[in-house]
Please model this.
Amino acid sequence: MTTTSVPVKTKQTGLLAGETKNGIGPGEKMKALLYFGPGKKSWEEKPKPLINEPTDALVKILKTTICGTDLHIMKGDVPTVSVGRIIGHEGVGIIEEVGTAVSNFKKGDHVLISCITSCGKCDYCKRGMYSHCENGGWILGHLIDGTQAEYVRIPYADTSLYHIPAGSDEEALVMLSDILPTGFECGVLNGKVQPGNTVAIVGSGPIGLAALLTAQFYSPAEIIMIDPDDNRLATAKKFGATQIINNSKENAIERVKQLTNNKGVDTVIEAVGIPATFELCESLVGPGGTIANIGVHGKSVELHLEKLWSHNITITTRLVDTVTTPMLLKTVQSKKLDSKQLITHHFKLSDIINAYDTFQNAAREKALKVILSNE
Amino acid sequence: MTTTSVPVKTKQTGLLAGETKNGIGPGEKMKALLYFGPGKKSWEEKPKPLINEPTDALVKILKTTICGTDLHIMKGDVPTVSVGRIIGHEGVGIIEEVGTAVSNFKKGDHVLISCITSCGKCDYCKRGMYSHCENGGWILGHLIDGTQAEYVRIPYADTSLYHIPAGSDEEALVMLSDILPTGFECGVLNGKVQPGNTVAIVGSGPIGLAALLTAQFYSPAEIIMIDPDDNRLATAKKFGATQIINNSKENAIERVKQLTNNKGVDTVIEAVGIPATFELCESLVGPGGTIANIGVHGKSVELHLEKLWSHNITITTRLVDTVTTPMLLKTVQSKKLDSKQLITHHFKLSDIINAYDTFQNAAREKALKVILSNE
Amino acid sequence: MTTTSVPVKTKQTGLLAGETKNGIGPGEKMKALLYFGPGKKSWEEKPKPLINEPTDALVKILKTTICGTDLHIMKGDVPTVSVGRIIGHEGVGIIEEVGTAVSNFKKGDHVLISCITSCGKCDYCKRGMYSHCENGGWILGHLIDGTQAEYVRIPYADTSLYHIPAGSDEEALVMLSDILPTGFECGVLNGKVQPGNTVAIVGSGPIGLAALLTAQFYSPAEIIMIDPDDNRLATAKKFGATQIINNSKENAIERVKQLTNNKGVDTVIEAVGIPATFELCESLVGPGGTIANIGVHGKSVELHLEKLWSHNITITTRLVDTVTTPMLLKTVQSKKLDSKQLITHHFKLSDIINAYDTFQNAAREKALKVILSNE
Amino acid sequence: MTTTSVPVKTKQTGLLAGETKNGIGPGEKMKALLYFGPGKKSWEEKPKPLINEPTDALVKILKTTICGTDLHIMKGDVPTVSVGRIIGHEGVGIIEEVGTAVSNFKKGDHVLISCITSCGKCDYCKRGMYSHCENGGWILGHLIDGTQAEYVRIPYADTSLYHIPAGSDEEALVMLSDILPTGFECGVLNGKVQPGNTVAIVGSGPIGLAALLTAQFYSPAEIIMIDPDDNRLATAKKFGATQIINNSKENAIERVKQLTNNKGVDTVIEAVGIPATFELCESLVGPGGTIANIGVHGKSVELHLEKLWSHNITITTRLVDTVTTPMLLKTVQSKKLDSKQLITHHFKLSDIINAYDTFQNAAREKALKVILSNE
Model:
């Protein structure tokens, strides 16, 4: 989830209301991070959530993290988040309790929480488009209370949680809640990265780096990373980029032309979300190639069909479906993917205000992803 | 080919020059339609072309037609067409002579001429992207002399001509030179039309109708045709559209919402080529759907990524590759495709000036495609 | 389901036991067809089933049918069916009651029952392989009581039932419980039928005819039907076969060679299930082609790899997943598929013993599918 | 090419005859390895070949190798090889001369020779099935003279040769003539190897190892190598196998069950070519999985459809098309593939009789592939 402007699902209002009424217990308390309007957040006591529907699970958070989207929420950019909402849509935890219809999980199971809630039974879920689930989608830390808390209620637990294999590095798996499936599904799969191909990634932030890491599953010949920040490019190099271009200092279009014999690249992954970077992608893609958009755009962009109409290109957009989570779990377990590289900082969950401060100043702090531990 | 602004392939200049020098014989003469600058054309005598390369064939034209692109050329919209060029890139004919390296064809063979010249040996041809052939592509009636003539030289004959089965209706096959593969490849295949799906086609001109005819190969549940002209929509209905919408009279977006339970369509085919119609497509496509562009655009369009970034959509562009010509030939032969429906008028080739007049006034004349016969 | 030997899912024993204990009410009664060992069946009174799990639905049967598999069960060929089991896995009905976790359906909804039970939350269901569902698969009328009864309990109702649109012909939809998805998924989709291609179908019984009907979604140029029975071939011709071959009278291999210029066909669909017909398929498939097996085989077959190893062919097997049911519903509604053609006889449900007699003597009775109505 | 029994293309007889008549010069001589019937071969003088068709190239061999198929030829297993034939279908060299219709290559170019000759203009070539080229296919060192010689004539040079980039390691590229595209296309691509999947490869000879190397392009979680030879398994381990099973010592089926939670593997690659190994593959593949056959089979195998009919599996066969050669060249250049690991021995071309001796005793000599240099 890297959102500046997000889709409003009015249908969830009911669920939201239901949750407010019934999903929170009268008795027990916990601590959580609450959004109180633009610029205002607070780590404070809240009632511990309860099982609300037979398909719910209650999860005790072990590790969570902060997403770029959470920063947008905190700035007030996501109007569908109401005041008082608990933020956060990533994490791993332990099952405390399950509803009567939950059969895949039981108390004590270690689980990975998906940022996308999937009911498993609407048309979109059946097509693998969990992001558009008619009863879920991105609701955690958005339309219902989220994971930056000691406990979280997870609807449709059977299809929204994943078992963590014994002996796993749980911090590494927090990266599978959102950022890695986002880079992989929206960037790499949609971009049809193939062995021997040439890939350009515009944007070397956490999400671009997630695309870089997972693009290597398919052994492209070249991965060209483009960003205006030398630090981020150095990280990209360390993570496997074969070429880096600082586009504040050199002409990325000319460099890519040189690197590709004037043919352009097979896949361009947009990992920023502004008109200038999308238009750069349009200039980098070669005939027959694909532009896979990951960036969350707040404005329309100019699509140069007067040039591209005859170039046999494909442009894709996607909100992460997390349909590849089982596949990604196997790649982490088999050490094909070292997701832990994305983690730069560690905090106690109770120290979350400081964690936000670090993450917000990512350039200064050289921060990628932070881990918050509920100890 | 339905082109207002076309890609210039400067690499073909050499070929062009070569052809001017060697490809035209000193002795025999023929008649042909020549472009003499914006608004000026003439049916006049020219030297009959000669075999120029061992891979060439010389074809006597039997039937040809006029394309929307030819009208653009005649208006001066295609600056890469030089004065004196013979126009036309469609037709069927008889082989007169072949070069020493041609092995698939011999004198006397009846052949379908593809609008796209494919060398069969560059990287793009090997990938099936004949439109981007490094030695061909769209050159006929553009960078080299074309088919609105009594004879035409066809480079790379083995990979740019197709045998016409005995007993075929040759007029029906003229529709396979360009318009049907264009509608099929750029619209239907790129649009991933599937059984049971809902398809919208924006633009009910010849190219939109070609998409309509070939979309039915895949048995979609609904094909919604959108155009501001009632006559064209009536034709669409006759050709198999299940719904028609006159968007000069009613709100196409609202109608499509009603027809699709507010979900939008699975495939939208853009068959016009202006910003307004492309933006209409953006409003019609549902989550998980595809916009397949066929239209030739002279200007950039506004892509509403602020809305579409999270809708899991695909946008494709394509210059026809004619890679499906063998498949289309089989569908015509087996009567799965009645391509002759597109033909509304007949002329003698020598009467081509009148044929242009009719085709140019398509609305008044209720013209779709005209056939010119070299009798 | 066209089964002579079926996969035993011992894991369902628990579910079976559970169902015996709790799924049947003490009070109300209904009539049902029971299997009492090889050759013995009876239409008799049984307790009406009850909701057993929160994900169950109780359905009142409106229409059901008999499958070739049911004949095998009655002969004793399916040892996993216990004595006393209610047979049947197809039908349409009305929801009587739903469990607390069912959200897609409510009392009074008209529903199509899928022959495959899908839990929607195991790994196989997430991959669209409902046939291998770890909690379902083919269990109806096999490991749990089935649809040849006045009422049936449907586990995992949300993902195993489908809404019937108002105004539908419900008899036509009974064909979507099993036979049409089987022909389509196992034969047509696995066989990659494409526009312009040549398809051979070996076996012109109900399942071969279901493949024939649904193959036409993709507009192949030729569909060659092969069977030793002239009546069945006449039906195939009426249903759209372009060529018919009676292989008891003529050499099918030679005829197909003639029809395909010695190239063989692109797709062969095996719809019988014996070694001789499978080996026939091996002789009919051309280089690059596919053999899609639908037939239920009781013995191994000889695979001529000494010839086929270099022919670039594909062989597929599949137990129907019914993952295309939503697509098929749309094709029936939009009249792209006239599934009713498969129905030849009608009986009252209470007259089921006679219906079995007719269906068992299909050749004599010219029977394809029979409809049993619970009036 | 790893062939015991090969497809006879009688259509090439003409070409063969043509070549005998015109393709060999009267004057210049060269040295070559000739087949003189079962068990008889000789390194002797032959006329140097000449350009025969305008599409031919004459190549001076720099490096070549010996294939398992060559051993079969020498034993007399390939009856389509006539006495006096020059053997060999792999190698790199320098262009000496090209025919008048060759445009991709010129004298002096360094080239990779494909084991498959592709005309680029028949139906099969257009579909990417070069192995079934109507004018080529596997003819080198089979139906026409091959590469174990100082010079070789290459028909359809434009579509059967590949440029070697300056600075390449040419020995590494000899592995791209046959063995690596064979392992990759027939095993890995047909087997649909995917990130996170489990792959078993039966047979750890050169071809199984080629599959092992190229399977890693797709980052499967596990690659299980099965072979009765510990040495070969040790090599497999070094080349990236995650599990090795000596099936002369342990039960491979049981071990694979343990390793896969009784689910079976996603992809099994058959790289031996005998009934026992193919049947082993049938026992290893899980529901939804694929058996990709590479092995050259001399006999039919038993296909257990009585079990597999309902397992949703796919079986593929393929003669290498070398359609992925451009992709593989990029993976070698970008160091994603270290093809040189397959080379164990070096000889002078003139020492080819000793090279055969070593290669024939692969187990004793621990030989994988040998390089023969024409110095």
Notes: The CA atoms of residues 194 and 328 of chain D lie 17 Å apart. Chain D has two domains: 29-178+322-373, 180-316.
